[in-house]
Amino acid sequence: MGLSGAMPTWFALAAVAITVTMPTTVVPAAALATPTPPASPTNPTTPIAHGVHMPWINLGTWQLANNKPSDPSIDVVPWLQQGGTGLDCAFDYLNQKKVAQAIVASKVPREDIFITTKIPGVGDALSIVKDNLVQLGTSYVDLTLLHLPLDIAAQWKGLEQALAMNLTRAIGISNFDPAQIESLMKTATVTPAVNQCSMGVTSHNDATIAYCQQHNITYEAYGAMKGCPFTSPVLLNIAHAHNASTAQVCLRWVLDRGCVIAVGTGSNSTTVPAYTKEDLDILKFTLTPTEVEAINKLDTTTGNR
Predict the structure, then answer these.
(1) Alpha helices in the chain (DSSP H)
(2) What is the model's pTM?
(3) Which backbone phi and psi does 202 adopt, to 5 degrees?
(4) What is the mean pLDDT of residues 142-163?
(5) Is a pLDDT exceeding 50 seen at residue 2?
(6) To 10 degrees, what angle do helices 272-280 and 246-256 make?
(7) Based on CB atoms within 10 Å of each CB, which residue in 13, 72, 174, 260 is the most buried?
């Protein structure tokens, strides 16, 4: 989820990393018979599993207004009506019923939307998957993520069951580092299709990004605007070269690192339409390898893990 605002309190929990050996034989994440939404001119896709293609840009549905979850209709409706196709949801966002209402209000067909949701790191995974479907008013979702690496083996088993039952078209993880992925793979029969983690210009975990790309796990960034140095001469020069804003450069950099992204457009109904257009317009330009490398060097984290 690439959004502004505080996360739910459970998000601060940390999982213990256990290093194990990656098995040599696993089953790729399977696709269902339900067709993938076609790539639109404003939102191309990347394959994440057999027959499943994920939009490069997805709207995160966790927003805060006055320290309370905002109404998803404020950003979901203009997102879908302006050509966005991906929605990033979660059981713990506590707003999926309102997301479902916003989808209906947009008048965009369900089959043209790529819905990602998440289950918590603990609990009855399969039951929560089914509850997500009820909340979202759909018979299936396109991608379900394990939100945190807590009860890894049990939760992943439940997701594999949901995949086999055609309740979700692909399954993945969120906030996992390489050691935790290897821990998961010790008992998994399905490789995660996606790993959604924090990633921004000033803080990016290159080791995890490289690990995922080496193991054919699509890396999805959230929080890409957090800490974005809008007045950085490096970003200002690159933005000028592409007739773009520094915010757009920060987002485009994620795509040009080979990742997909979850973005936020805020909770102000006056500015959301313009921010939606700005986010989708990052598809109108690309950064050069030299520009990507220059932005990589803006990382301020110790050691750039």
Answers:
(1) 73-81, 96-106, 125-136, 152-164, 178-185, 206-214, 233-241, 246-256, 272-280, 289-296
(2) 0.86
(3) -95, 0
(4) 98
(5) no
(6) 40
(7) 72
